[in-house]
Design goal:
The chain has twelve helices and two strands. It has about 290 residues and is mainly α. Strands 1-2 form a two-stranded antiparallel sheet. The radius of gyration is 20 Å and the shape is globular.
Amino acid sequence: MGEKSNTNGGLWIARFDENIRRWGAKTCQHALGTMLKDSLLSDGDLAAANTVHQIDSFYQQEYLTSDPLLKFKDDQGMERFLNGFFEAVFTLASLLPYADPNQGKLVNLLLELRKLPPRQLRIWNEDCLVWVREPIFGLVMEDNWNGNHPSDAKESSGGDGERSFQEICDEWLNFSCFLARCIEAGLNNGYVDRCKYPSIDIPEGLEPDLPRGPKRDCKIMVAIQYILLAGRVVAEDCFKKPVDGFGPKQWERWAKRLGEIASQEDGNLRLASAAKDARKYMASLRPRT
């Protein structure tokens, strides 16, 4: 699969290894998670394509043959397989630092999967094309979006029993940046509302006057990164398909708020600099801002 990279190490590897062990050696998530990790740690232009071949071979030669009855089902076990795969993907995405190039490599791997010869199956009584048009990707994405949110309850408890609240905020930022990259890459185009998550999380970060602290900084940075990473798509939907609370007026208000953050955030230079970049990008997309 290529030489192992010396630049991609970090805390995410150890933490993802913990999840792989927790899933158990006999689960498809264990095997798929290991493939995903090895792919990110491999250099070379063919790393993603090689991993896609591994994943496809694993399904056909090991997963499908593990139960002789699977091939007689409408979905041939694909619902459970896809669920395990995407759980591994989104778990990994939440652990990859938001600016880590590996986030882009993971998105590229999902795009490579869509190049496989189409396999038509029925999932939940719907005709689906595996990796291209199926409901599992969106469902697992939404479950993880709901479950990873840095809620008031987690903040008041100082965490969730396993992670500190700061760690929860960090993982929410990582996860949100991965969603933004998926949106920009067109992976959400098959859904009715491809900008569902930025349409909620940008206003949450830029419109309320939040008290200073980790949650405020996290939510503002999430809003900023949605603009920096998926601003083209967000702008298109804001101006061409506006809905209540997500349209041209909100776009103008967000641009103004980013200008305020850029000029007033003296204690957090990273946030101020990112806000300035996002404001500049918004102006390039819509000069009147």
